[in-house]
Amino acid sequence: MKTINKKLTTLMLAGALCAATIGGVAVVNPVASLADEKVAKTYAVKDVFSVSSAEVKADETTSSLTALNISDDGKVTFKRDLALKWYEGKNDVKYLTMEFAFKALNFKSVSFTVESESAWATEAQKATNVVKFINENGNVSVKVNDGTAVSTQIVAGKDIKLSLAAGEADGEFGVMLAVDGGAATKAGSFTNVGSNFAENSSTMSPLVISADVSEDKTEEKAVVLLKEINGQRFDNLTPKSETDNTPMVKDTAAPVLVVNEVVSGFHIGTPFALEYEKIDVLQSSNYTESKTYYQYNPTDKAEDRKYESLTTSTTFMDTVYTTESGRVTSVFLEEGKEFISVKFLLGDDTYSEKEGEF
Hints:
The protein is about 5% helix and about 45% strand. By secondary structure, it is mainly beta.
């Protein structure tokens, strides 16, 4: 069973003057997935998804919008790993966000299903959480898993923002819903989530959008106008070329760093080890990465506080120094722990690693 250590948030988000103790080492870690935009790469939007009784195309009315046209019992499946929770900069925890609209309320229901590793053993060996939008004569309610359906102000064409938030228990995320720029309200909870990301694999689909269309309208399709996933815009489609109308989506988001383990191995005298994933909405591999660290020494002046390369061979040891009175000691002897700041910089084919402000 994988659980998310509550100390991890403190660990990854601690500011420059505080730290969380993990074993004998305290880590102050400004995790960064920063990027410097150059010429943005474009991707065929149809390659990011797979379909069954559905189409992914440019909307017929507004060609810059990504339209998921889903027939009765059809589905659109996202073919990338999906970050559920990650870290940006020093103190910023981010959660999954999706922005979309229903072009028309011509469906019985539209479901967003997230499959992930389970926190506790299940027969299917995965956790399945579903957000279901139910349409009854133009009145749309939302239901999360087996919870109570909650009424909404959803109308055709208006923006809907679906997001996750911190949960109230281990393996849990709150599911938040905002309509037409309004305040987000809690619609329910994802449960039994054993990972901070949903993996795209042969046995798990990170995100599946499916529809149940009215029986007397078998030729109808539910149309979901997809606008954003985790900061990546899907409302910027352009044709591939003057002679090729393949809709291409412009890369607008750098890869993110998902820390995905209970941190228990940062002990003095042991090498650096951390289970994490680099995840991008559009690009599935070939990321660039640099890891550096600074270990606190009270005798260092500001100009001496330089980050050094960090690898799995880097071993954390006591920082020995001499006090002004000439006494030889160490940070561990004085504080009961060492202080280390770790920095991650990520890049992809559009975004390059760039030193940020920390």
